[in-house]
Design goal:
The complex is a heterodimer. By secondary structure, chain A is mainly α. Classes of the chains: A mainly alpha, B mainly alpha. Chain B: Keywords: Cell membrane, Membrane, Transmembrane, Transmembrane helix, Transport.
Chain lengths: ~280, ~300
């Protein structure tokens, strides 16, 4: 840190500062709608619908109280159930499949891998009618288990790709050594594979949880009041009649909170998950 | 290697023997862990499509009980000559392409901003990824009411005026909300690419007298290409199925200005109850998707080879 009056360095310092300010402004701009949502949720309805917008106000919990008075809780519980159980099922199905596509690969592993990803490309809307009719015939409309099965299928390809990328990182020498020592498959899995891929399992679970928690299309068409998930609770806010903005923002904040927090905590794993393991 | 050697002695080679017992058992033991997932995926995602194909040959409106009969390909004639479906196709392409393109460009810009050390970088990164984590349904409602609303929305509140954004610029309104949610996704993937770039190459370019712009266009951008492709591809897979934003912000309107294929088929199924036509439209969309996806899979495949080569 010498105090040289090097003009080149001084301009470099100045451009550095400009870039830093620019980055901060971009971050704040992208965050502004979220901040506005959280702020509005703590307003009285009169303040929420004011023009020009009110930035300073006495925070109240009216919005939150009304949301829970209107029974948000069962919707949250349905979301939790659908997301957690489907995530668990996905891991149970995808991990062995990923093993058979990486460590001890089947003959045409590449075709299988691409089959999984191709199911992700097919439009859900084309399957809506047959799924709806089938579910209706089985008497499974408005049932959380219907969503669980469909969310499992929805996330399975992502999980297979992700878990495969994590399993590929296990050194083959380690597995061979275990086999040489006569370790059974279960022991190999428990002692060698699991400790190495545990972070991968967590990352995969996070991604599956996020996608199931936020899913709307299947939920809105296959559920109603009994098995409705949290986005279904929000459907009532689509029309803009009456004073409701504060209540809407309170509800939107609550239903988004679990995923926002999970995503913040697990930022590192997020990239790898979103790219299905392609980007490390 | 072995193939080049044996190719000349094919004639004298013994006839292929059937796999011996332990061999076959070994192959099944390899397949076993794969089977549950594979069977599940086939049953839940492929069988419905077969049923869709069957339904598409039926004249069936659920509002008229007993109206169901086999009519062959007549639904396809209706669907393919339907101006609404063509409009929906155009809207889908416009919506997907513009959201992907804008969010990739913005994501690239943000990734470059974040690819240097500065005070509070972690916080800025956290702020930037938040839009992607907000529930899409909540985000759509937030944009519709708290941001676009002509009388109390944030845009008119800050800049004045009483523009009704959603009815005057419906497509832009939907795309803007989607871009806001998807830019962080693109940024994360591109940033990972930037950070995997070797510093030595960049240093070598600097030593050779390349300016920052030259370094960026000649070295960084070509290096980032697979990451940009991956981001665009994954973004397209999700955005082509956009439903929440259209359903919430515009309901496909005004008129049919923002009706995309998922929303159009949803309307045919659950508002008009034209099951046969909806199924035919679904089949057409699937065929279109397969054509596009074949191309997309080739892109993934080439990314894949690159990974192998590394």
């Amino acid at each position: 840190m010498t105090r040289t009056a090097n003009p080149a360095r001084r301009t470099a310092g100045r451009t550095d500062a400009v870039w830093t300010v620019l980055a901060w402004l971009a971050g704040l701009l992208f965050f502004l709608p979220v901040a506005w949502m959280v702020l509005t949720g703590f307003k009285r309805e009169v303040d929420a619908a004011s023009n020009p917008p009110s930035w300073f106000f006495t925070p109240v919990l009216d919005g939150y109280r009304q949301v829970f008075d209107r029974d948000l809780t069962p919707y949250l519980l349905n979301s939790l159930m659908a997301s957690l159980v489907s995530t668990l099922l996905v891991l149970v199905l995808a991990t062995p499949a990923a093993y058979a596509l990486s460590i001890r690969p089947v003959a045409r592993w590449r075709d299988v891998l691409f089959f999984f990803i191709s199911t992700k490309m097919l439009p859900v809307v084309a399957a809506l009618l047959p799924v709806y009719l089938l579910v209706q015939n089985l008497g499974m409309l408005d049932n959380v288990w219907t969503l669980i099965v469909l969310y499992t299928a929805m996330n399975l390809p992502i999980a297979v790709w992700m878990m495969r990328s994590f399993l590929l990182e296990v050194p083959t020498a380690l597995i061979e050594a275990a086999a040489m020592d006569g370790a059974s498959l279960l022991v190999t899995i428990r002692r060698i594979l699991l400790p190495i891929v545990a972070p991968g399992l967590a990352a995969t679970a996070l991604i599956c949880f996020i996608f199931s928690w936020n899913e709307f299309f299947l939920a809105v068409n296959l559920t109603a009041t009994r098995a409705g998930t949290s986005p279904i609770f929000l459907v009532g806010f689509i029309t803009s009649e009456g004073l409701f903005l504060a209540r809407l923002c309170a509800a939107a904040t609550i239903v988004s909170l679990p995923v926002v927090l999970a995503g913040w905590i697990a930022q590192k794993q997020l990239v790898r998950g979103l790219s299905m393991g392609a980007v490390k | 290697m072995s193939t080049t050697i044996t190719s000349g002695v094919d004639a004298t080679a013994p006839p292929a023997v059937r796999p011996t017992r332990p061999d076959r058992r070994q192959r099944w033991s390899r397949r076993a862990p794969l089977l549950p997932a594979l069977v599940f995926a086939i049953v839940v995602t492929q069988l419905p499509f077969l049923f869709t194909v069957y339904l598409s040959t039926q004249s069936w409106n659920a509002l008229r009980p007993g109206s169901r009969e086999f009519i062959g390909l007549a639904n396809y004639a209706t669907v393919l000559s339907d101006a609404r479906l063509r409009a929906a196709l155009v809207n889908t392409v416009v919506l997907t392409a513009s959201s992907v393109l804008v969010s990739v460009l913005l994501g690239l810009g943000l990734a470059i901003l974040l690819d240097r050390r500065f005070p509070g970088r972690g916080i800025v990164r956290t702020l930037l990824i938040t839009p992607f984590l907000v529930m899409p349904m909540a985000a759509a409602l937030l944009w519709k009411h708290a941001i676009y609303n002509p009388s109390y929305g944030l845009i008119n509140g800050i800049f004045g005026g009483n523009t009704d954004w959603v009815s005057q610029y419906p497509m832009v309104s939907v795309v803007a909300a989607l871009v806001w949610q998807w830019t962080p996704f693109m940024m994360l993937i591109i940033l990972a690419g930037l950070q995997s770039q070797s510093l030595e190459t960049l240093e070598a370019a600097r030593v050779d007298g390349a300016g920052p712009w030259q370094t960026f266009t000649r070295i960084t951008l070509p290096y980032l290409r697979p990451y940009l492709e991956l981001g665009a591809l994954l973004g397209s897979i999700y955005l082509v199925q956009t439903f929440d934003a259209v359903f919430t912000i515009t309901q496909g309107g005004p008129g049919r200005a923002t009706t995309n294929l998922p929303y159009e088929i949803y309307l045919t199924t659950f508002r008009k109850f034209e099951y046969g036509e909806a199924a035919a439209a679904g089949v057409v969309v699937v065929i279109g998707t397969i054509l596009v996806a074949t191309f997309a899979l080739r892109v993934i495949s080439s990314l894949f080879r690159m990974e192998d080569a590394r």
